[in-house]
Amino acid sequence: MSDLAKLTGPKVLPASGGPARQLVVLLHGVGADGDDLISLADYWSALLPDAEFVSPNAPDQCDMSPYGFQWFSLLDRSMAAMTAGVKKVAPVINAYIDEALAERGLTPDKLALVGFSQGTMTSLYVALRRPEPVAAVLGYSGALLAPDLLTAEIKSRPPVLLVHGDADQVVPAQALPAAQSALQAAGVPVDVEVRPGLGHGIDQEGLTRGGFFLKRSLLG
């Protein structure tokens, strides 16, 4: 795994032109990179003019493709293997988050994690185990890893919004109610949005719902 200092990627500074008062960290899916999600800033910066958006590249080259990066390997998609993978990368992401907050003089309640697919799995795992809650977790087309460990390991309960297409053939739509049930059982405030006819992706309605969720969570 790469050195922590090399977890870098594109960023978009606050639309207001002033210092960042909120930070939105975007975690991409497997085989992609930070450029894949940084354009979400274009949709949400009007709602969050004082927010900076950062989209780090995952630390490892994707082992299923000559292109892109991964937060953990998916060659073995068993729950045990994926949980071991996300557990290994979690300290890298936590260090990145802590440094990013410190550089901007922000506290965790001014940070939101947004993930897509594997980035959602990673965001949920990391956020729920941080000692201080972040402002929000917004997850698209993902899943909750290690649900059986959550009650024992959870340290914070930030609000969560999960958005999933009911035609997703990559991460099956059944992952949404499964995650919702486990999060509710652990006392996490969770809301869900099922997008009719949507495959493994993000649509305009999902972006709109996500944007207002971020605004409410970060600005109150």
Automatic annotation (TrEMBL):
<feature type="domain" description="Phospholipase/carboxylesterase/thioesterase">
    <location>
        <begin position="16"/>
        <end position="209"/>
    </location>
</feature>
<dbReference type="InterPro" id="IPR029058">
    <property type="entry name" value="AB_hydrolase_fold"/>
</dbReference>
<dbReference type="GO" id="GO:0016787">
    <property type="term" value="F:hydrolase activity"/>
</dbReference>
<protein>
    <submittedName>
        <fullName>Phospholipase/carboxylesterase</fullName>
    </submittedName>
</protein>
<dbReference type="InterPro" id="IPR050565">
    <property type="entry name" value="LYPA1-2/EST-like"/>
</dbReference>
<keyword id="KW-0378">Hydrolase</keyword>
<dbReference type="Pfam" id="PF02230">
    <property type="entry name" value="Abhydrolase_2"/>
</dbReference>
<dbReference type="InterPro" id="IPR003140">
    <property type="entry name" value="PLipase/COase/thioEstase"/>
</dbReference>
<comment type="similarity">
    <text>Belongs to the AB hydrolase superfamily. AB hydrolase 2 family.</text>
</comment>
